[in-house]
Design goal:
It contains twelve helices and 20 strands. By secondary structure, it is α/β, with parallel strands linked by helices. Among the domains are: 112 residues, 3-Layer(aba) Sandwich (Rossmann fold), CATH 3.40.50; 56 residues, OB fold (Dihydrolipoamide Acetyltransferase, E2P), CATH 2.40.50. The protein has a six-stranded parallel sheet with strand order 2-1-3-4-5-6, sandwiched between helices. Helix 7 runs parallel beside helix 8 and helix 11 runs parallel beside helix 12. The radius of gyration is 22 Å and the shape is globular.
Length: 412
C-alpha cells in the first residue's frame, strides 16, 4: 500500500506530517511527501492566508489526477476553519482539523467530518521521521497573542507546551547533526513554570547543534541569552519577527512592543553573539500604514542590520480584526514591497560579505548537481563544489555567490 502525506504551510505542519508518516510506515505503508500515485492521501492544510487555504483545496484535485479512486483525508488549519469546504469535495473520505492529527493513523476507516474542539492540553505526537541531517522538534502549540491580522489562534487554540523531559528524550533519540526547536510560538514555551530559558538550560549538554525557530521580542533577555551561550553547540541565528517599524502600526497590529524595544533586543543579542544572524518578517501595506510608517520600518531594518528579511504583503483574512479595515491600494503595496525587497538584498549581501574569510562549521546536506550546500550556525548558506557526503565540515567562506557564499573545506 502506498500513501502520500502532502503538506502546506509552516514548519510545525511539516513536523507533524513527519509524525504522521512515521505512524503510517509502522502500519506497513510506503509513504512519500511528493505528489504521485497512492492508495491514500493525507493533506495537511494551511489557512494563514486566503491563498494558502485556496491551495489546500486545490490539492484535492491535484491528488485525484494520480488516482481518482484513492482515499483522501484532510487535516489541519484550513479544515479546522471550514470543514465543509473540504467534505463536499468528491473523493474526500474524512475531514479532521488541528486536534487529533497524532491519531490519524488510527482513524483511516472513519468517514465524514471529525473536527474536534480546540483543547488546552498539549497533543503529543510520535517522534517525527528524520529525513535529513537537520531535524525539527516541536515544543509548543497554539498562541495567545491574537495579532489583529492573524487567524492562527482561532485555529490552533491557546498556548500549551510539552514537557522538557520529552523534548530532551526526543532530541537524544535522533541522529541529527542539528535540531531546530519549532512551535507556533516558541517564545510562549512554558512547562509548568519552566520557560524557554529553562528548557535551553535543561538540554544544554546535547551533542547536536541547536537552533531556535521564530521568536518574539519579549523573549530576548539576559537570562535566555546567557543560557543559549552556555549551550554545548548553539546556532547563533535569531528569527525575530518585526512586522513593522512604526509604533502606531505595531499598536494597531496588537503587537506587544515598540520599535525601540525591538532594537534594544537586537543590540542585546549582539552583546552575547557578535556575529549572530538576525532575520525577520515584515508585513508591507497594513491598512493603517502611512508612507511615513513604512519609511520608519525601512529605517529600523537598516539600524537592525538584518541578515535577511522575509517580506509579506498584507492580505485581509476573514475572521480577524484587520479584515474590517479599509485595505490599501495594490499599487501602494507593490511599491513598498519592491522598496523592501531592494533593502533586503542589500542587507543580506552585506551580512554575507561580513562573513567572508571566516572558518565556520557548516552542515552540508543538499546536492544540486554542481554544488553541495548547507548552513553555518548563523544561517549563511554555503556552497561547496562537487558532491559531498552529508555531514558537518569546517569550511572557509571565500566569496559571495547567489544567496550565500562559496566555501572551501579545510578539514574533514
Amino acid at each position: 500500500m502506498k500513501a502520500v502525506v502532502f503538506t502546506l504551510g509552516c514548519k510545525v505542519n511539516a513536523c507533524e506530517s513527519q509524525s504522521i508518516i512515521k505512524n503510517l510506515e509502522d502500519l506497513g505503508y510506503h509513504v512519500s511527501v511528493e505528489l504521485s500515485y497512492a492508495d491514500l492521501y493525507v493533506i495537511n492544510t494551511c489557512a494563514v492566508t486566503k491563498e494558502a487555504e485556496k491551495k489546500s483545496r486545490q490539492a484535492i484535485a491535484r491528488v485525484k489526477k494520480f488516482n481518482k479512486d484513492a482515499k483522501i483525508i484532510v487535516v489541519g488549519c484550513a479544515s479546522q476553519l471550514n470543514a465543509n469546504n473540504f467534505a463536499c469535495k468528491d473523493g474526500v473520505s474524512l475531514v479532521s482539523g488541528t486536534v487529533g492529527k497524532s491519531q490519524i493513523h488510527k482513524n483511516l476507516d472513519k468517514t465524514g467530518i471529525d473536527v474536534k474542539e480546540l483543547t488546552e492540553n498539549y497533543e503529543y505526537f510520535t517522534a517525527p521521521k528524520q529525513v535529513k541531517t537537520r531535524a525539527f522538534v516541536k515544543i509548543q502549540d497554539g498562541c495567545n497573542n491574537f495579532c489583529s491580522y492573524c487567524i492562527i489562534p482561532y485555529l490552533r487554540g491557546r498556548s500549551r507546551s510539552r514537557s522538557k523531559e520529552s523534548v530532551l528524550e526526543e532530541i537524544n533519540a535522533l541522529s541529527a547533526l542539528e535540531v531546530v526547536l519549532t512551535a507556533i510560538n516558541v517564545t510562549a514555551y512554558n512547562d509548568d513554570g519552566s520557560d524557554l530559558a529553562s528548557l535551553i538550560d535543561f538540554i544544554k549538554n546535547v551533542d547536536c547543534r541547536i537552533r531556535l525557530g521564530s521568536i518574539e521580542e519579549n523573549a530576548i533577555n539576559e537570562n535566555l541569552l546567557n543560557k543559549l551561550s552556555n549551550l554545548k553547540n548553539f546556532a547563533p541565528h535569531f528569527h525575530l519577527s518585526l512586522q513593522s517599524g512604526s509604533d502606531k502600526v505595531l499598536k494597531d497590529m496588537n503587537r506587544k512592543y515598540t520599535a525601540s524595544a525591538f532594537l534594544n533586543g537586537v543590540n542585546l543579542i549582539r552583546k552575547y553573539f557578535k556575529n549572530a544572524g538576525i532575520t525577520t518578517d515584515v508585513i508591507v501595506g497594513y491598512p493603517t500604514e502611512t508612507e511615513q510608517d513604512f519609511l520608519s520600518t525601512l529605517d529600523l531594518c537598516k539600524k537592525a542590520k538584518f541578515s535577511d528579511i522575509h517580506p509579506f504583503v498584507f492580505s485581509p483574512r476573514e475572521g480577524t480584526v484587520a479584515c474590517k479595515l479599509k485595505d490599501l491600494s495594490p499599487s501602494v503595496k507593490k511599491q513598498r514591497l519592491n522598496a523592501l525587497i531592494e533593502l533586503k538584498k542589500q542587507l543580506k549581501n552585506e551580512f554575507i560579505c561580513a562573513n567572508l574569510g571566516k572558518v565556520e562549521e557548516v552542515i552540508l546536506e543538499d546536492f544540486d548537481g554542481v554544488y553541495t550546500s548547507g548552513y553555518t550556525g548563523n544561517y549563511v548558506k554555503v556552497y561547496v563544489e562537487g558532491k559531498m557526503p552529508s555531514g558537518s565540515y569546517k569550511i572557509l567562506l571565500n566569496s559571495a555567490y547567489d544567496d550565500g557564499a562559496i566555501g572551501k573545506v579545510i578539514n574533514n
